[in-house]
Specification:
Helices cover about 60% and strands about 10% of the residues. With about 90 residues, it is mostly helical. A two-stranded antiparallel ribbon has the order 1-2. Strand 1 and strand 2 form a beta hairpin. Helix 1 runs antiparallel to helix 2. The longest helix has about 45 residues. The protein is rod-shaped. It starts with 7 loop residues before the first strand and ends in a 7-residue tail after the last helix.
Length: about 90
């Protein structure tokens, strides 16, 4: 396994810094963009998971305890369809 290249360390006006070639700097910027894009996708997936979890909880509650307004099969089917279509009211 090869070692990771070590950056060139320099001191400018008493401050330790790292010198990068233009190519290394461009690679660093590209990596930051990739990480930013992945972070945005992860946030979106997290939100989708939360919405799906809430939908499953609402469906479970509806099926386990349908209540008088959804006691018959057709009313229950309609209530489930409304939840799946996003028109239902989350509990």
């Amino acid at each position: 396994m090869s070692r990771r290249p070590q950056p060139l360390r320099i001191v400018l006006e008493g401050v330790e810094s790292v010198a990068l070639s233009v190519e290394e700097y461009e690679q660093l910027l590209a990596s930051r963009r990739q990480v930013g894009g992945q972070s945005a996708r992860l946030r979106a997936l997290g939100e989708r998971i939360r919405r799906t979890d809430q939908l499953l909880s609402d469906l479970r509650r509806l099926v386990e305890d349908p209540g008088p307004e959804t006691a018959d099969a057709e009313a229950l089917r309609k209530a489930v369809a409304e939840l799946l279509d996003g028109r239902g009211k989350p509990a």
